[in-house]
Specification:
single chain; alpha/beta; Rossmann fold; 8-stranded mixed sheet; 324 residues; Dihydrodipicolinate Reductase, domain 2; 10 helices; 6-stranded parallel sheet; 14 strands
């Protein structure tokens, strides 16, 4: 399928470079140099500094939106209204109201919209789903997760630190990944508690957030995210009545991606331990794209859609609105 990419920063470039057999037809960024960088070495790719050009192109089937948060929803909406299928990065919007507008537009124009939660497609998460579906850890009880980094010098001056542009801090950035994964394994959450804090960075958004989420059946997710995690860390633990799955690392600065499966013995005591390591290149971006195209061609809902985005945003907004 033919693809146009709007937003040529770090994530947009990753998307453009991981289209697999699909064709990059156009790129746009307000910084024309970034657009040229993404298109460098490729033939037949149109380049623009105006994202409106991309959504109006007749030969573009899919629009990928990888911009700062405040632009995601308006660009996705116009793409939908031009009958394009859309892959829009998390969190989709800085407001649940905007997501509701997107849902209505999607229904009207009968297109597919997928949300960019690439961690779903990391090999450790895929393996965890396989183990859980095979009942290896039994009935699920609760989840613990942490995702953090230390950011970088000057971070307090970047768009992610401006609430008008980002919608919030580490919760709407890193935390939404943890919420998404927890919903994927445990289902919808009916009780939401948490807090946000700005401990270190001199900015208007939080640099740490802590969540306690509970399903109607009593399954709990205890999650935290941080911009003051001085050693980049990803940790996600799934507890069942017959064992536990521990996922750590995402590659690169987060360390080798690893899944450890602890299987309980009948007499308890030290569990039987099996470890899988995934030291190879991150293919989650390519897999996510191919899954989206599969959904389009088979006229099925993508595995992470606007309804998922809405439920995640409701949780984020609850934390933001219920703490001064």
């Amino acid at each position: 399928m033919n693809v146009g990419v709007i937003g040529c920063g770090l994530i947009g470039k990753k998307r453009a470079m991981n289209l697999d057999k699909h064709h990059l037809r156009a790129v746009a960024d307000s910084s024309i140099n970034k657009a040229y960088d993404v298109a460098s070495g490729l033939t037949g790719v149109r380049i623009s500094s105006d994202w409106h050009d991309i959504v109006r192109m007749n030969d573009v089937d899919i629009v990928i939106v990888s911009t700062p948060n405040y632009l995601l929803a308006p660009i996705a909406l116009e793409a939908i209204e031009h009958c394009k299928h859309v892959l829009v990065e998390k969190p989709v919007s800085i407001s649940s109201t905007d997501i509701l507008t997107l849902i209505e537009a999607q229904k009207k124009h009968n297109v597919k919209v997928k949300i960019g939660y690439n961690i779903r497609n990391h090999p450790s998460i895929i393996k965890a789903k396989e183990l859980i579906n095979a009942k290896t850890i039994g009935e699920l009880m609760f989840i613990k997760g942490h995702y953090g980094n230390g950011s970088r010098l000057g971070f307090e001056k970047e768009w992610r630190s401006n609430p008008q542009l980002s919608g919030g801090g580490c919760l709407i950035d890193l935390g939404v990944h943890l919420i998404d994964l927890s919903r994927m394994f445990l289902g919808d959450f009916t009780k939401v508690n948490g807090s946000k804090h700005t401990y270190f960075w001199k900015m208007q958004v939080e640099d740490n957030a802590f969540l306690h989420l509970e399903t109607k059946n009593g399954n709990v997710a205890c999650l935290s995210c941080s911009y003051t995690e001085w050693k980049n860390t990803f940790l996600f633990e799934i507890y069942g009545k017959l064992g536990k799955i521990k996922i750590e690392g995402l590659g690169s600065s987060y360390g080798i991606e690893r899944l450890t499966y602890y299987r309980l013995r009948p007499q308890l005591g030290p569990p039987i331990t099996t470890i899988w390591e995934y030291p190879f290149e991150d293919e989650s971006w390519r897999l996510e794209m191919n899954k989206f195209v599969h959904a389009i061609k088979n006229n099925i809902e993508p595995d992470c859609n606007l309804v998922d985005a809405l439920e995640i945003m409701k949780i984020v907004e609850h934390i933001y609105m219920n703490q001064t």
